[in-house]
Design brief:
With 410 residues, the protein is mostly helical. The chain starts with a helix and ends in a 7-residue tail after the last helix. Helices cover 66% and strands 0% of the residues. It has one domain: Orthogonal Bundle (Ammonium transporter fold), CATH 1.10.3430. The protein contains 14 helices and no strands.
């Protein structure tokens, strides 16, 4: 029986997560070079269309058809094609065990699939051909994202082990963040010296949309309206706020010794990424500690990246990759069945190391898998489609040379 309230909430949550991808394009576009704004934004927006085609055709089915327990998937790693092209699903088909139609779940999870590869693009701005990115987007989803959705959320092997990931610390942020680092190393450094943000107000608009959309990202992941939904909602905001202020204070006392708007916004995104895997499993006090620690750890990760001279242009690895990994580890420490009866207690709540060890094992698998497949794909793609733009194109700007358009920023 359909519950109109829950269905309305899930449709709203889906809409909020969809808004995150345009928000990401504004965030990245404002941080990038003025000659490459449209190329950066195009990489996010094209995922809205292309990922939808993939998700409808077979992506949803590979993620959410078949289970390890039922022996109907491929060794607990990937699903089957039973639901390809939404076969057997109508507007009246209810999501099993839930009070809303499966169409809504299909759309909600599709928004996650859209934004995940788009996160990677911030690492290699100004350096990658659009054609190679489109090919990469397709195969990265098939070979990296879909397997991890199935393994963690779709009845696959990691879910069978008892691995928890409330809204994507492993599935989204760890995989995308370490793929971004590998892609950065593969394409090398940017040419020239014009690397300063071109439009900080645009970054602020993007951060606002990301923060706003993240409520749907985290709270909606409960797939219901209950006390866990409320906990995930407030934990999201608290973690982001504490991380933003922590980052601001550190930056104010180090480096430039000035409080910057970009630092404040980057800290907020770090807090959002870090709380994502734990949002529906921890108390609000724990969320405050997680946000504070994420502000420190992600800031140090960015500093480490700079010392290593990795040209991760928009700190995708330091913010999303490290944030997702750190948040997943903290889940193993701070999870409590008092907030969510679906979890065992973490180490700090008397549960021992069981959950922590499971989360660590899943992280190792995710990092190795995402890194290896990303490196292999880039090598394979480059044999047929050049991955790197020429020095001349990079100097002249990708907007004009690849897209034939120029962003006129006032």
């Amino acid at each position: 029986m359909i519950d109109k309230g829950v269905t309305t909430f899930m449709i709203l949550a889906t809409s909020l997560v969809m808004l995150m991808t345009p928000g990401l394009s504004f965030f990245y576009g404002g941080l990038g070079n003025k000659k490459n704004i449209l190329n950066i934004m195009m990489q996010s927006f094209v995922s809205l269309g292309l990922t939808t085609v993939l998700w409808f055709s077979f992506g949803y089915s590979l993620c959410f058809s078949g289970t390890l327990a039922g022996g109907t998937d491929f060794f607990g790693i990937i699903g089957n094609f039973d639901k390809a092209f939404l076969h057997g699903i109508t507007p009246k088909t209810m999501m099993p065990g839930k009070a809303f139609p499966e169409y809504v779940f299909f759309a909600y999870q599709m928004m996650f699939a859209i934004i995940t590869p788009a996160l990677i693009t911030g690492a290699f701005i100004n350096r990658v051909t659009f054609k190679s990115y489109v090919v990469f987007l397709i195969f990265w989803q098939i070979l990296v994202y879909y397997p991890f959705v199935h393994m963690v959320w779709g009845g696959g092997i990691l879910q069978h082990w008892g691995v928890l990931d409330f809204a994507g610390g492993i599935v989204v942020h760890a995989t995308a963040g370490f793929a971004a680092l590998v892609a950065t190393i593969y394409v090398g450094k940017r040419k020239g010296s014009e690397h300063e943000p071109n439009n900080i107000p645009l970054v602020a608009i993007g951060t606002t949309l990301l923060w706003f959309g993240w409520y749907g990202f985290n709270a909606g992941s409960e797939l219901d309206v209950n006390e866990i939904t409320v906990a995930a909602f407030i934990n999201t905001d608290v973690s982001a706020s504490f991380a933003a202020i922590t980052w601001l204070i550190i930056e104010w006392n180090r480096g430039k010794k000035k409080p910057t708007l970009i630092g404040l916004m980057t800290g907020a995104v770090a807090g959002l990424a870090t709380i994502t895997p734990a949002a529906g499993y921890v108390t609000v006090s724990s969320a405050a500690m997680i946000g504070t620690m994420s502000g420190m750890v992600c800031y140090m990760a960015v500093e480490f990246k700079n010392r290593m001279k990795w040209d991760d242009a928009l700190d995708v690895w330091g913010v999303h990759g490290v944030g997702g990994v750190f948040g997943t580890i903290l889940l193993g420490l701070f999870a409590t069945s008092e907030i969510n009866s679906g979890t065992i207690n973490g180490l700090f709540y008397g549960g021992g190391t069981e959950l922590l060890l499971k989360e660590l094992a899943a992280l190792v698998i995710a990092i190795v898998w995402a890194s290896s497949f990303t490196w292999g794909m880039l090598h394979a793609i480059n044999r047929y489609v050049p991955v790197k733009v020429s020095d001349a194109v990079q100097k002249g700007g990708l907007d004009y040379h690849i897209h034939g358009e120029i962003a006129r920023v006032i």
